[in-house]
TrEMBL record, chain A:
One BP term from GO: cell division
Main location: cytoplasm
GO MF entries: GTP binding
Name by which UniProt lists this protein: Septin
Domain spans labelled Septin-type G: 29-302
The family this protein is said to belong to: Belongs to the TRAFAC class TrmE-Era-EngA-EngB-Septin-like GTPase superfamily. Septin GTPase family.
UniProtKB/TrEMBL annotation, chain B:
Residues spanning the signal sequence: none
Family annotation (CDD domains): CDC_Septin
Record-given protein name: Septin
Coiled-coil zones: none
Residues annotated as domain Septin-type G: 32-298
Name of a matching Pfam family: Septin
Key words of the record: GTP-binding, Nucleotide-binding
Gene3D superfamilies, per database record: P-loop containing nucleotide triphosphate hydrolases
Length: 359, 413
């Protein structure tokens, strides 16, 4: 096989402008990103989202009392905002999960969340298989920030169960919330412990892609530091305070001022850079190429195995999915079919027995 | 028993000396030593052990608990401490595994059971005939410190449910743990929210007593600071030219004993230095008495009989005992009766079966006779047939013997 020979241009052809063209087109098209935040009440999720996107998404929300939360169920609430920076438009959707982990009995409290993610996949699957694919809306969840409380010694059972239920459906980025309650030593210990437990329980959190080998040393070093810093210990703030002669986002205490964007105070900057400035597109790619493809393959497999069993089908296997591909109803239909078959067999057997007896 | 005597006030002519009674009491109690039992309720890692260490300035032994316990269990540990000449037998009870399970509906039960068990043990000792209350190791819980996580919003649902179950059994002081993560303004709002939630749900927490003028002022002001926002630490950091217990952060140093940083000093003051004795008293006079009354009522004791005459415990006890023995006898009778009935029944059954068998036997016999007779008949018939046949045969033979040629001739034709 001939390997492509690299030709050295004698004259400038011009396809080096391709990256610029991509840039121009993408700016025109605009971007979209769906971010899910999950964790118990009071972990600072809303404050962190406000700090990340420098806006106030949660102006008039109402928090429930302890009494109201005893039997609370998990809700899914979407906030969509259109923001723009230097001509680049971003349609940002934040998916909130109020009520997670707040009730006294939290059995399967992650089910509404996994159902939501699956629904978005299913909708995209249908849209993708449709006839008119011009304006497909991508509502799939690209990233889930999971807030781990800093008060414990590591992951708790509810953290483990949640992450295990979601790690094959969405990119999970675990965060240590309210990190201003931990001294630097305590942070290090907790991070090590959490990383250990993530390994131990086989949880697949989002992995940063490897650096290309031809990147410069500084970039590689930064990348290495980033990876060793996970899970990020974050602090958020809705207020601006005066520190060291500047106005910064921070928290004012009698003993000092915590600056959200100070890298020696917390990992907020690392998170922001990673989430927004460098890896946003990779998160989308992994969602499309890995999580969605897994879902799609599984879906198709289920459908074809059902069709194979169903030998009453005379029409060819449709390219389009059936009109109501509600997974639950399909399962029900399958079950009923099997029951019918069983009963038929029983009837046959009985008939045979009677026949034998008569003889 | 009401006395109709008039009480008269007399003035003393000189110094008699009974004003030393309080000192005598004190000296006696110092010789005896004191006993104090603290229950710490809070999720794993919230800082219960660290706070105990900080409060008592001692490194009590403790291993870090795991988050993966199947349920909640209580771990009591007793220590003998001494300060000046005062000896304290301190028991610290930890709730291990609290708040870790996914389903926390039963989390409060082991705690309530533990508290009740200590009351029960005391009650048993009290009811003994030969009892030694003066050297009984009192394990009843004098104070429950409930550790609230510093979310800044409100109580957790588990907190509310648990405190409601505990408030009638033990003195509760709610505290906000790891308070160095809440800023001043947030703390103010948080405290108000917590107290209003407790009030609106009818949770009774311990109120520092304001009936004694010497301490009423400070107690009243402290009541307004609940829940106490505390920070614990055994590590020391150099501040100025002193080494103080503190937590060192990149942005500053949180000093445990600095009242503008947290309420640790208030907690220590209230819990140990001012109201420890009151806590013990309340436990005995209020919570224990309530338990005792409920328990005895359950057992059927009353203070007054149907005629509203006061009952003595002894009489009630005798009556109960008679009742119990009567019950026992009755039960024995019942059982015996039942046994006799059962035997009769079984006998009757067996008789019935016997009769049936007999009948069957008779029937079979009859059938057998029938069959035999039939067979006999058939045999006779058969014999007759055989005889008839033989006769015919003989006749035929004699006939053929007398005309043999004719037959041959006929045949040849």
């Amino acid at each position: 096989m001939l390997s492509p020979t690299s030709l050295i241009q004698k004259q400038y052809v011009g396809f080096a402008t391709l990256p610029n063209q991509v840039h121009r087109k993408s700016v025109k098209k605009g971007f979209d990103f769906t971010l899910m935040v999950a964790g118990e009440s009071g972990m600072g999720k809303s404050t962190l989202v406000n700090s990340l996107f420098l806006t106030d998404l949660y102006k008039d929300r109402k928090l429930l009392n302890a009494e109201e939360r005893i039997n609370q169920t998990v809700e899914i609430i979407k906030h969509t905002v259109d923001i723009e920076e230097k001509g680049v438009k971003l349609k940002l959707t934040i998916v909130d999960t109020p009520g997670f982990g707040d009730a006294v009995n939290n059995n399967e409290c992650w089910k509404p969340i996994t159902d939501y993610i699956d629904q978005q996949f299913e909708q995209y699957f249908r849209d993708e298989s449709g006839l008119n694919r011009k304006n497909i809306q991508d509502n799939r969840v690209h990233c889930c920030l999971y807030f781990i409380p800093p008060f414990g010694h590591g992951l708790r059972p509810v953290d483990v169960e949640f992450m295990k239920a979601l790690h094959e459906k969405v990119n999970i980025i675990p965060l240590i919330a309210k990190a201003d309650c931990l001294t630097p030593n305590e942070i290090k210990k907790l991070k090590d412990r959490i990383r250990e437990e993530i390994d131990k329980f086989g949880i697949k959190v989002y992995q940063f892609p490897e650096c290309d080998s031809d990147e410069d040393e500084e970039f590689k070093q930064l990348d290495k530091e980033l990876k060793e810093c996970t899970p990020f210990a974050v602090i958020g703030s809705n207020t601006v305070v005066e520190a060291r002669g500047q106005r910064v986002r921070g928290r004012l205490y009698p003993w000092g001022i915590v600056e959200v964007e100070n890298q020696s105070h917390c990992d907020f900057v690392k998170l922001r850079n990673m989430l927004i400035r460098s890896h946003m597109h990779d998160l989308k790619d992994v969602t499309c190429d890995v999580h969605y493809e897994n879902y799609r393959a599984q879906c198709i497999q289920e459908m074809t195995s059902k069709l194979a069993q169903d030998n009453r089908m005379e029409s060819p296997i449709p390219i389009l999915p059936l009109s109501t591909p509600d997974v639950d109803t399909e399962k029900l239909i399958k079950m009923k079919d099997e029951e019918l078959k069983r009963m038929q067999e029983m009837l046959n057997k009985m008939q045979q027995q009677m026949h034998d007896k008569e003889q | 028993r009401s006395s109709n005597e008039e009480k008269r006030n007399l003035s003393l002519g000189g110094h008699v000396g009974f004003d030393s009674l309080p000192e005598q009491l004190v000296s006696k109690s110092v010789t005896q030593g004191f006993c104090f039992n603290i229950l710490c309720v809070g999720e794993t890692g919230i800082g219960k052990s660290t706070l105990m260490n900080t409060l008592f300035n001692t490194m009590f032994e403790n291993e870090e608990a795991s988050h993966y316990q199947n349920g909640v269990y209580l771990r009591p540990r007793t220590y003998d401490l001494q300060e000046s000449s005062v000896r304290l037998k301190l028991t610290i009870v930890d709730t291990v595994g609290f708040g870790d399970q996914i389903n926390k509906e039963d989390s409060y039960k082991p705690i309530v059971d533990y508290i009740d068990t200590q009351f029960e043990n005391y009650l048993q000792e009290e009811l003994k005939i030969k009892r030694s209350l003066f050297n009984y190791h009192d394990t009843r819980i004098h104070i429950c410190l409930y550790f609230i996580a510093p979310t800044g919003h409100s109580l957790k649902s588990l907190d509310l449910v648990t405190m409601k179950k505990l408030d009638s059994k033990v003195n509760i002081i709610p505290i906000i743990a790891k308070a160095d993560t809440i800023s001043k303004s947030e703390l103010h709002k948080f405290k108000i929210k917590i107290m209003s939630e407790l009030v609106s749900n009818g949770v009774q927490i311990y109120q520092f007593p304001t009936d004694d003028e010497t301490v009423s002022e400070i107690n009243a002001s402290m009541n307004a600071h609940l829940p106490f926002a505390v920070v614990g630490s055994l590590e020391e950091v150099k501040v100025g030219n002193k080494a103080v217990r503190a937590r060192q952060y990149p942005w500053g140093v949180v000093q445990v004993e600095n009242e503008s940083h947290c309420d640790f000093v208030k907690l220590r003051e209230m819990l140990i230095r001012v109201n420890m004795e009151d806590l013990r008293e309340q436990t005995h006079a209020r919570h224990y008495e309530l338990y005792r009354r409920c328990k005895l009522e359950e057992m059927g004791f009353k203070d007054t009989d149907p005629d509203s005459e006061p009952f003595s415990l002894q009489e009630t006890y005798e009556a109960k005992r008679k009742e119990f023995l009567g019950d026992l006898q009755r039960k024995e009778e019942e059982m015996r009766q039942m046994f006799v009935n059962k035997v009769k029944e079984t006998e009757a059954e067996l008789k019935e079966k016997e009769r049936e068998l007999h009948e069957k036997f008779e029937q079979l016999k009859r059938m057998h006779q029938e069959e035999k007779r039939k067979v006999e008949e058939k045999r006779r018939d058969l014999e007759e047939e055989m005889n008839a046949f033989n006769r015919k045969k003989v006749a035929a033979e004699t006939l053929s013997l007398s005309q043999p040629v004719k037959k041959d001739k006929d045949k040849k034709k």
